[in-house]
Amino acid sequence: MAQVWKCAGLRWAADGAVLVWDGGRRSALSRGKSVAFGVAGEGGRRCVGARGNPCPVRAVVSGRSTGARCEECARLDRAHSVAADTIADDPRPYRVYLAWFGPGMVKVGITAAERGSARLLEQGAVCFSWLGVGPLMAARRTEELLRAALKVPDRIPYAAKRAVRSALPETGAERAAEVTALHARALELDAWPESLVRQPCQPVDHVGAFGLQGLPTAVGEVAELVHGGTVSGELAAVAGPDLHLATARGLVVLDSRLMTGWELGPGSAGGEITVPVREFRPEAVGLQDGLF
Predict the structure, then answer these.
(1) What are the φ and ψ backbone dihedral angles of 93, each rounded to 5 degrees?
(2) Run of H or E including 203
(3) Using CB atoms within 10 A of its CB, is residue 227 exposed (0-12), middle (13-18) or buried (19+)?
(4) Using an 8 Å Cβ cutoff, are 273 and 247 in contact?
(5) Which of 255, 179, 252, 244 is nearest to 213 (CA)?
(6) Which residue among 14, 60, 161, 291 is least crowded, i.e. fewest CB within 10 A of its CB?
(7) What angle do CA 204, 134, 15 make, to 5 degrees?
């Protein structure tokens, strides 16, 4: 390959999703766009480092890892993560939210208020509503309160999210129903921190932003990228980190986090995929719409 770029990940903004490349170049991910690339990097996939700093040993990492970090860089990155509950003195205001990914899949979480809805788009939340806003530790205590009192998790596996995207309820009101009900129950709890300001239920729907309306059932997902492999397809939807590609074999999901750390070059259009693809089991179609 004459020219290669290293992917730095997928980013969401108010105007949609983009792939970011080392050096600052960006590629908009608009639906209907052709996605085609070949995997270079004869030395394998390299660790992306931590907190904006390169990996000091340029360690080789597994092609199946969504983190694309070696053990040491992963430890350093998590040590400075709000999600890991290792930072207690962040002065910024934080929001508590309820996010819905499909029937029976609602989670509670927190995000810096300045980030707006970016965190929800990154996670692939189909619908969400804010619950409250306040200091970090008050937001964290509220998150724990809701987990314990309402039995709402703070994490939902991506496999479960992908499993229902082609079989979501038709209307926004139906998709918002569980969030609305849980929001009402949450506001009835007595143990909220005084410094957290409660917010009204105002569900935000991302079906249009993701392009999920009428999305066909996926036949499989890319398991990993490998040197010399190619990926080609038409972009049907983008939800969270997932690219839904219409290919010669049907709709295939590519988790864009598998792209980071690889050197990628131009590929030929045509819908062919020569990297390993994990096919979804036919026997699961009736239960989870053909995904797992």
Answers:
(1) -75, 145
(2) none
(3) middle
(4) yes
(5) 244
(6) 14
(7) 35
What are the structure tokens assigned to 66, written together?
């969504």
The tens digit of pLDDT for each residue in 47-67 reads 999 988 999 999 999 999 999
Q: Which two tokens stand for residue 282?
A: 């036919």
Cα maximum dimension of the chain = 63
The amino acid sitting at 98 is L
Q: Amino acid identity, residue 205? A: D
Q: Which carries the bigger pLDDT value, residue 89 or residue 238?
A: 238
d(CA 150, CA 163): 24
Strands 204-205 and 5-13: unpaired
| Torsion from C-alpha of 25, 16, 278, 227, nearest 10 degrees | 0
If you count them, how many residues does the chain have?
A: 292
C-beta separation of 244 from 235 below 8 A: yes
Burial 202-226 (b: 16+ CB within 10 A, else e): ebbbbbebbbbeebeebbbbbebbe
Full-prediction pTM beyond 0.85?
yes
Residue type, 80: H
Helices (H), the chain: 71-79, 118-123, 136-150, 158-162, 172-187, 207-210, 285-288
Q: How buried is 53 (Cβ within 10 angstroms: 0-12 exposed, 13-18 middle, 19+ buried)?
A: exposed
Which pair of structure tokens corresponds to residue 260? 């980071």
DSSP line for 58-127: --B--TT-SS---HHHHHHHHHT-TTTT------S-EEEEEEEEETTEEEEEEEEGGGTTHHHHHHT-SE
Environment class of 234 (CB within 10 Å of its CB; exposed 0-12, middle 13-18, buried 19+)? middle
Fill in the amino acid letter for 269. A
Determine the 3-state secondary structure of 281 from DSSP: coil
116-172 residue pLDDT tens: 999 999 999 999 999 999 999 999 999 999 999 999 999 999 999 998 998 999 999
> Tens digits of per-residue pLDDT, 222-237?
999 999 999 999 999 9
